[in-house]
Amino acid sequence: MAKFTDVLLVEDDPITVMVCDRVIKMTLFAEKVKSCENGKIAIDYLSGFEEGSEPPQIIFLDINMPVMNGWDFLEEFEKIRSRFTSLPRIYLLSSTVDPEDYKKAKNFSLVEDFISKPLSKEALQNIN
Amino acid sequence: MVNALADSRPSDNIPPHPAIAEKEDFFKLLVNNSSSVYLLTDAALVFTYSSAAVKDLLGYTPEEILGMNSVELVHPLDKEHVKNMLSASISEPNKTFVCEYRVRDKQGTYVWIENSVCNLLESSGINAIVMNIKNIQSKKFADEALMQAEQRLSLLLNNTAESFILLNSRLRIVTYNKAAQEQSPFFYGRPLQSAISVLDLINKDEIPDYLNLFEQVFKGQEIERESNFVDLKENAHIYSHTFRPIMNNEDDIDGVFITSKEITEKKKIENEQQALTEELVKNNQDLQQFSFITSHNLRTPVANLLSLLSLYNKENPLDEFNQLLIEKSEQAAQQLNQTLSDLLNLLVIKSASNIDREPISFTDVFIMVKKNIDSLLQQQKGVIYTDFSIIDQIQYNRIHLESIFLNMLSNAIRYRSPDRNPVIKICSYKTDNWAVVEFVDNGLGMDLDRYGDRLFGLYQRFHGNIDGKGLGLYMTRSQITAMGGKIEVESEPGVGTRFKVYFKLQQ
Predict the structure, then answer these.
(1) What does the H/E/C string look like for B308-374?
(2) Between the CA of residue B402 and those of B72, B195, B349, what are the distances in Å?
(3) Burial degree of B383 (CB within 10 A; 0-12, 13-18, 19+)
(4) What mean pLDDT comes out for the span B177-196?
(5) Are A65 and A39 in contact (CB under 8 A)?
(6) At B196, is the pLDDT very low, low, confident or very high (cuts 50, 70, 90)?
(7) B174 in helix, strand or coil?
(8) Angle at CA of residue A114, ends A110 and A118, nearest 5°
(9) What is the average pLDDT across A40-45?
(10) Residue of B nearest to A96 (CA)
């Protein structure tokens, strides 16, 4: 029995996607892993959810992506969050070392935490 | 008093009246104890009497003086002047003439004296020209010292570029120096004048502001101001003015001292330094950003390698999944290698501040670069129009310029619109100190409101599904800014993009 039903992974690097998918499934963190290769594709995907439905429980979000980056995604998500009955918990998954990114993350209440790449079993154990 | 002197004349035969004789003794006492010297001469201006004080003044005894001519001891330069005065006195009896001049004392030193002369030759009982002489040496010295001090002061005040204006407690002009007079027409549009109010010089709309300022000065504050004006040759000048309260002996403020000096040059240097500091701060921020981004981009493949290795099934090396992990590890290692070499290239561009410049033609560079993109262009049925007729040659680094052209052109083709064949127009022109090259395409275009600030950023990509590392425009911008230039962009989604590259023209 997995900890969560579904996880959305917003990440453009294919190796990272593969590794995360594997770790999430191996540790029985979630049953389903959906991945989107940038913020725009993720927003399009979430916009397809029906009014009053449940969003993915957990979103792992990369910051630096083409077309629509992690910050753009967070702003756009604000516009569509009302369609969901509950809100996802969002974890920024990044290799950033820029302190500005950490400050910026505090402006978004949906962001639970920063997780440094690579996504480890230990990091997943801390999410309950 | 004069009567008394008459008595000392040796030729007098009439015996004095006892009461008169008593009075005469009294006056004699007065005369001989006075610090002034009393002298009498005959009509030929020869001394016939001298009071005792002459010894103190000139070193001669009264006896030595008798028989000397009045002009004998006078300084040669003053002789004419003294003679004129004496002949005037002779022709106008009973009137007192006063004259200042130098006489030689017994030791040969000249002494300044003041002589009051009165012709009483016709007055009975006196029958002499009466002279009263005072030593004015110390007064003369004091006057001269004062005059010299004043001259030195005005020399100082009038030979400085700083202007001074002194106002009294009612803001009226008391005095000013030459520089103030010269600057006044620029500041006030009219010349300075003593006794007028300084408020009459100031523009009407500035008066409330100045009244406020003077109020503060009269509260004891020193105030500094700056002002600008443009001279007849249209050169801009900046002046700094200081308003200081002036205290009187009772420690009350009873005036204002205004000093003004030109600070145009100083300001210029200050502004240059500020611009330099801003540039340094900006460069520093750029470098910091560069280091953040490079660390980020190095961490990503390293993180991937670590994850892949952690997933490796060591117990069963033949696990099918292990094969995939090895493949992916190879990819991650290549990614790491690629990132490192990209960053190395960027560092070379960024650190090369002393790049060789040579005369270089846009046409030549274009022909060179076009060879590299020709097959891609033909494949996409694209066309390129160029016009370098206005300016074709600049001083630049050939490799950089080729790289800029290559990036601009390959971007224009790479981000073409799926709806039409690519058309690219390149032209050059001049503005101010810049040679500008414009690259206009009819491609996808971009939403600059959204991406504008990140467009030239490192590892920023804006199009999905198109192979790009987010290096091109960052490199292009680095190659431009490293040579003192800049790049601007205008774009409309679905219509196209216009890049303007500014190359600084060399003097």
Answers:
(1) HHHHCCCCCCCCHHHHHHHHHHHHHHHHHHHHHHHHHHHHHHHHCCCCCCEEEEHHHHHHHHHHHHH
(2) 103, 73, 14
(3) exposed
(4) 80
(5) yes
(6) confident
(7) strand
(8) 130
(9) 94
(10) B296
Residues of A near B (CB-CB distance < 8 A)? 13, 15-16, 18-20, 22-23, 26, 37-38, 40-41, 64-67, 72, 94-98, 116-120
Q: At what angle do helices B137-158 and B178-188 cross, to 10 degrees?
A: 40
Other C-beta atoms lying within 10 Å of the C-beta of residue B334: 11
DSSP summary character for residue B71: T
Mean pLDDT score, B371-398 = 91
Contacts of B199 (CB under 8 A, 6+ apart): B171, B207, B210, B211
* Residue B159, helix vs strand vs coil: coil
- Asked if residue B103 lies in contact with residue B74, where contact means CB atoms within 8 angstroms, the answer is yes
Name every chain A residue with its beta carbon within 8 A of the beta carbon of B311: 19, 22-23, 26
Question: Where is pLDDT greater, at A13 or A9?
Answer: A9
Stated as kind and residue range, the H or E segment containing B152 is helix B137-158
Mean pLDDT of B2-18: 48
Listed in order, strand segments (DSSP E) in B5-107 are: 37-41, 47-50, 96-104
- Name residues whose C-beta falls within 8 Å of residue A62's C-beta, 6 or more positions apart in sequence: A10, A11, A12, A13, A16, A70, A92, A93, A94
User: Whole-model pTM?
Assistant: 0.56
DSSP letter (8 states) at residue B200 = G
Residue with the two structure tokens 């033609």: B361
